[in-house]
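Our example pasted here:


***
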Amino acid sequence: MMINHSLRNQYKVSPGTVIKGKWYNHEYRIIKELGNGANGIVYLADCHGQDAALKISDNSMSISSEINILKSFAKVRGCTLGPSLLAVDDWAVKDKVFPFYVMEYIKGENYLDFIKKGDSWTAVLILRLLKNLSLLHGMGYIFGDLKPENLIISAPAGDVRFVDVGGITPIGRSIKEFTEFFDRGYWGMGSRKADPAYDLFAAAMIFINSYYPKRFGRKGEGLSELTRAVNEHKELRRYEKVILKALMGKYDTADSMREELLRIISQNSAKGGIPNQGTKEPSLVQSRTARKKKTKGRHLESLILVLLISFIYILYIYSRLL
């Protein structure tokens, strides 16, 4: 991903600067920079005593696209995929006008910082990420630049939230933004066409990054290197089947990857709450009809997830009290 140096060099927004909207006259006092990318810079800003995230750009088309995506997020019931859109305006400075939008500032921790609390969180967060990706893909979009830096674990529920929608791309088009480590094209394992498998590859790489926080570059044949990295870490070996299938593009949907990961977690949980290396996938509960089988499977999934998350949360609270 390339940083937009031309945008940064056109003006300097220092802490304390007040950005006043050209059309609505609302004022936003800049606190600090949160991040930057190819299509703009995001700042933490104070708006009438409330924290907000303000993204400013010199690319009006990109800003409009991101605004539309945030509006689409708001229409998804029962799940908050990303930040809420708060305001849209322009900033007139000197002889130039820069479009910007203001969104909810999600309080929480970034993905890699959060999982330092314990390895047990990793698989649970990947499950939640896959659920969000399923919803996003159902809307006709691919996240594209999927990586830990673009994920916030919100407090106190521990939900996975998307915080940068700049790389989100309609299915079928070319990926707009990517980061090499999470890009299947970099590893020689597929194109940069926006399809669900592109995001699922990145989800598998986030799994790997969880246990290799310093990341590593490609030195030879991509699949061989990634397979070796998985095999050399005992925690990753527990989820080897799911990770490698995602890397090779063998999942058509996020739901299919999520269901297989959940089966592995449920088997591990049944054997003491801690995953065991080498366990086989459990068969689904047998029933007389396919409909009963599917219903019981959904109930089992919900029960297992509730029990697992509750167990991990209790351990986390206990560790904070020590």
